[in-house]
Each structure stands twice: as structure tokens, then as C-alpha cells.
């Protein structure tokens, strides 16, 4: 099986390179170093060190460049030392992009097609946000946007993609370098009206994830979602995005809803405020389960998107060569009928492009428990340097 997959990848790369021989193609890479520290429970300091090498290739397959092949591979080695724990060294390789794509004009709109391995998102970015193997097609116009996607996850590297089963438990593996993840068949279909009354946008999306190898009849990880999003401007500088998701997992109904407001008082300044709700066992709903693991806080008790209400506030500044971001959120737990405040999280991020091919960035995040559970306190900081060539 692995030999067959290898031959397919090799043949596809050769086909892309030979097909593009009459056109120019680009290649390059990125060297990235990340150094981080952590202070779980505000007691003891751990550290982590990671070095990554990314290599990419873009090969046009048509004279206008609208049909093309692109691929990206990476190698990463990391060293992690948690307080009062042994040092863990891990490394892996991955091909996170391997895509044939094209764009064509069609009836006052554009038709887009992509096949291979590439990043895929649902319309909210909450359910499904990861690399996946599959095929997508999209038609975009001023009146209507239509899109569909179908894929397979069983060839992905579980060391770089974290997926959840139907019980909100991440699939893990003790294999090194490359570990095949649990096979699912993800699919979605989207219809969007981008310019309704007052330039409001309305979109509907269906997402499904079919468990190819369920553990048993009673442990089937298949789940399905219906998403509704309404968004648009309120004034020239104030915008909103309202979303709600109804899902079914293990024959139980679940819900995620959010409301976000975005204010742009200056061209380089944005302020946002909002609230998220992910159902626990609340009334008619059961615990919300995403497909791709999604962290909502650095809390050990409530790290994922389930049984929480999260009011949040943020701001960002964008300069010619740098970016500043500051965010704060209140974590409120609602696993059952009662709601209780758990903690406050703040995070700061900064990035500076020293040169066009050299970037320095850092991030600091702190979670402060307010419920008396001091073991949830956490502080992390990361400094990164990336060089492109």
C-alpha cells in the first residue's frame, strides 16, 4: 500500500514538472526556529524547542498561470521538557500540500477546481479546519456562490493533524515520523448569497464526516452538521457575523452559536467583540463535538469547544512591516444546566518583517483561574524566527 502511494506521488510530481517545462515554475523554502517556555499551574518552568524546514514548488500548467500544480513538504524536530517530566524528542515529515488547481471564467463568474491534498475549512472554521485529501469545486458570481467538497482522511499524518472521535477524544498514535490517522469521508456543500438587501450575506452549508472504520456498532464516529451564517455591514466601519450550527453525533443533537462584531476606526486598527456558545448537556442539546480538534482556552479542564460560553474582546494594529494583536476572553463552563465562570485568558502576539525574507515573531498567553482550581493556571510564551529562501 505504501509503495503504491509513493509511486502515485512520484508520477504526479513528474507529470506536473514535465507538463510545466514550457512555462516558468517557482520553488523555495522556509527555515523556522521556535523557542518556547511554559509554566503550568504557575509552578515550575518547562521549555520546548522546534526546528522546521519547509520546501515548496509552484508549477503553472497553462500560459496564463490559472491552471497550476503546487506542493509543499516539511520536516520538523522538537524537544519538549515539561516540569518534573522527562525530555521528549520527536520528529516527523509531512506533505501538507499536493494540489492540482484551476480557475476559469464562466457566465459572468468564475469556476474553480482543486484536487489533491490541501487545507480545507468549513464556513465557520470551527468544525473542520485541517489538511485533507480530496476534490473541491466552486462557482463564484456577484449573485450566488456554490461550492462542494469530498475527501478522505486515511492517508494523513496524525502527528500533524489532530482529529476527534465522536466522544471528543483525540486520535493518537505511538508511531514515529508518519502515523496514518483514522479514515473518514468528509464532505460539504455550500450555497451563499453574497449580496442580499443592504449588502448582507447569507450562507448555508452541510458538513458530513462518515466513519469508514467504526470501532463498533455503538461507537460510530460519524457526525453531520448544518450551518447558517448571516453577515455584513452595519455602517461603513462596523460589521457583524452571526453563525449557528446544528449537528448530530451518536444520534444526539448539538449546537454551536456565535456572534462577532468588527469595528475599524482607522485603516490599520481593528477592534472586535463577540461571544461563543458550544453546547454541553443543555436542554435538548448534548455536548458539542467538532471534527478537527479546536482549542478555546489554555485551561486543562475546558480546552476544547464543548460545554462553554466565551465572551471575548480583541484589537489589532497593522503597520507596514509589523503586526500587534491583543485578545482577552472569559471562560464560562456549562457542561450541564448550571453556568459558572472558570477563568480569564489574555494573549499578546507580535510579528515583524525585518526584511522581505526574514520574520521575527512572539506570542504570550496566560490563563488565570477564578474558580479555585489552581491547577488550571497556565502561562506560555514563544519566540519564532523564520527565514525564506
Q: What would the keywords be for this entry?
A:
globular, mainly beta, 18-stranded antiparallel beta barrel, 389 residues, 58% strand, 1 helix
What would you note in describing this structure?
- By secondary structure, this protein is mainly β.
- Helix content is 5%, strand content 58%.
- The chain contains one helix and 18 strands.
- The chain has an 18-stranded antiparallel barrel.
- A hairpin with a 3-residue loop joins strand 14 and strand 15.
- The longest helix is centred in the first third of the chain and has 18 residues.
- It is globular, with a radius of gyration of 22 Å.
- The model has no long low-confidence stretch (mean pLDDT 91).
Q: Which residue ranges are poorly predicted, with pLDDT under 50 across at least 5 consecutive positions?
A: none
* Strand coverage percent: over 45%
- Overall radius of gyration: 22 Å
**Class from secondary-structure proportions:** mainly beta
H/E element sequence: HEEEEEEEEEEEEEEEEEE
In helices, the fraction of residues equals under 10%
Give the CA-CA distance, first to last residue. 35 Å
Number of strands: 18
Task: Specify the number of helices.
Answer: 1
For the report, how would you describe the main beta sheet?
A: 18 strands, antiparallel, barrel
Average pLDDT across residues? 91
- Structural shape: globular
Amino acid at each position: 500500500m505504501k509503495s503504491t502511494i509513493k509511486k502515485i506521488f512520484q508520477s504526479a510530481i513528474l507529470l506536473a514538472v514535465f507538463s510545466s517545462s514550457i512555462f516558468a515554475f517557482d520553488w523555495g523554502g522556509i527555515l523556522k526556529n521556535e523557542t518556547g517556555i511554559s509554566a503550568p499551574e504557575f509552578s515550575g518552568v518547562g521549555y520546548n524547542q522546534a526546528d522546521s524546514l519547509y520546501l515548496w514548488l509552484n508549477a503553472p500548467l497553462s500560459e496564463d498561470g490559472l491552471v497550476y500544480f503546487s506542493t509543499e513538504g516539511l520536516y520538523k524536530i522538537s524537544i519538549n521538557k515539561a516540569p518534573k517530566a522527562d525530555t521528549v524528542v520527536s520528529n516527523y515529515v509531512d506533505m501538507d500540500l499536493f494540489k492540482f488547481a484551476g480557475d476559469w471564467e464562466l457566465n459572468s463568474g468564475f469556476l474553480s477546481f482543486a484536487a489533491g491534498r490541501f487545507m480545507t475549512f468549513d464556513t465557520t472554521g470551527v468544525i473542520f479546519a485541517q489538511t485533507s485529501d480530496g476534490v473541491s469545486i466552486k462557482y463564484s458570481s456577484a449573485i450566488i456562490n456554490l461550492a462542494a467538497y469530498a475527501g478522505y482522511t486515511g492517508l494523513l499524518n496524525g502527528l500533524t493533524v489532530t482529529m476527534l472521535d465522536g466522544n471528543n477524544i483525540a486520535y493518537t498514535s505511538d508511531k514515529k515520523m508518519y502515523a496514518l490517522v483514522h479514515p473518514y469521508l468528509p464532505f460539504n456543500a455550500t450555497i451563499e448569497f453574497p449580496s442580499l438587501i443592504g449588502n448582507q450575506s447569507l450562507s448555508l452549508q452541510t458538513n458530513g464526516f462518515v466513519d469508514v472504520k467504526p470501532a463498533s456498532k455503538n461507537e460510530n464516529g460519524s457526525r453531520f452538521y448544518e450551518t447558517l451564517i448571516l453577515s455584513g455591514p452595519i455602517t461603513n466601519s462596523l460589521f457583524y457575523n452571526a453563525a449557528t450550527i446544528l449537528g448530530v453525533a451518536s444520534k444526539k443533537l448539538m449546537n454551536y452559536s456565535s456572534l462577532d462584531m468588527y469595528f475599524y476606526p482607522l485603516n490599520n486598527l481593528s477592534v472586535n467583540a463577540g461571544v461563543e456558545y458550544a453546547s454541553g448537556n443543555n436542554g435538548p442539546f448534548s455536548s458539542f463535538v467538532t471534527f478537527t480538534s479546536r482549542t478555546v482556552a489554555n485551561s486543562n479542564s475546558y480546552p476544547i469547544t464543548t460545554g462553554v460560553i466565551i465572551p471575548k474582546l480583541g484589537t489589532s494594529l497593522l503597520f507596514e512591516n509589523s503586526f500587534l494583536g491583543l485578545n482577552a476572553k472569559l471562560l464560562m463552563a456549562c457542561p450541564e444546566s448550571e453556568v459558572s465562570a472558570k477563568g480569564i485568558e489574555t494573549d499578546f502576539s507580535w510579528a515583524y518583517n525585518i526584511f522581505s525574507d526574514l520574520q521575527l515573531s512572539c506570542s504570550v498567553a496566560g490563563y488565570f483561574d477564578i474558580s479555585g482550581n489552581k491547577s488550571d493556571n497556565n502561562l506560555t510564551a514563544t519566540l519564532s524566527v523564520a527565514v525564506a529562501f
